[in-house]
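Query form — protein Quinone oxidoreductase

QUESTION: What is the three-dimensional structure of this chain?
INPUT:
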Amino acid sequence: MSKAIRIFDNGGPEVMQFVDVDVPAPAAGEITLRHESIGLNFIDVYYRTGLYKQSLPAGLGMEAAGVVQAVGEGVTHVAVGDRVAYACLPPGAYAERRTMPAEQVLKLPASIEFDTAAAMMLQGLTVQYLFRQTFVLQGGETILFHAAAGGVGLIACQWARALGVTMIGTVGSDEKAELARMHGCTHTINYKTENIVERVKEITDGKGVPVVYDSVGTDTFYDSLNCLAPLGMMVSFGNASGPVPPFSLSELASRGSLFVTRPTLFSYARTRERLEHMAADLFDVLESGKVAPMISARYALSDVASAHADLESRATTGSILLKP
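ANSWER: The structure tokens for Quinone oxidoreductase are given below.
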């Protein structure tokens, strides 16, 4: 037996239960992992509340790092004792041990620690596809990135600086603004005291930006559209404030023939080849020292309800880890 978090109903943090579970031996194509560190992400909240559907009872958690304990038939790219990490579906990372498909795990370079990997796999791969695939940044652009002091945001600040990109980041306090600037954000906008659209137009001499990366959702959607230059792209990759309601396509035409996309990590990493390419890019920027996660808090796995409550309050910055 092993300990894991399970939900039997959707709801608030209180629905998560710390229970005993069986961990089956790996079948063909599977491995069993002992987790050393587990990442906490806002997508976990979506699954807990039922915004994203899954059959119940169910596990939670999309990323973790650990050690391979057993391998099933046909598994050749990892072996018992290897250090590995992953960010994948289905949820289930909130666990001491887990048996899962081997094709979803990646061997960790020796220089990358478990906590770094658990804090970077989902968030780092997210920034990789946003910056290197969804809207490919060449350097020299000025971009708008919402929630710049969050886990994804602080990685984006650093990666933008490494690419030679001017990043405008929105934050909810002066303290978060300072943190974002320390990590490479060129300009910050405190959305509680400043008008986002006016400040973006001021910074860009009225031109607007070619791309907005928005994980907030309904609260910022129209501000994001209004910050775009003609032919600009709105990248809506999250719903922290709630999902964007239906809107008329004329909203895009009237603002200059805009583009809108709703990407997901798992569409971009849909094959083993694509996943390995994305991870190689992420591991390279980590090993270069140009990007590193800021781990703001560590919680015991059994105290996951407190971790979720803190995340949802928007009181946190950087990455949050759960420790088995």
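ADDITIONAL NOTE: The mean pLDDT is 95.
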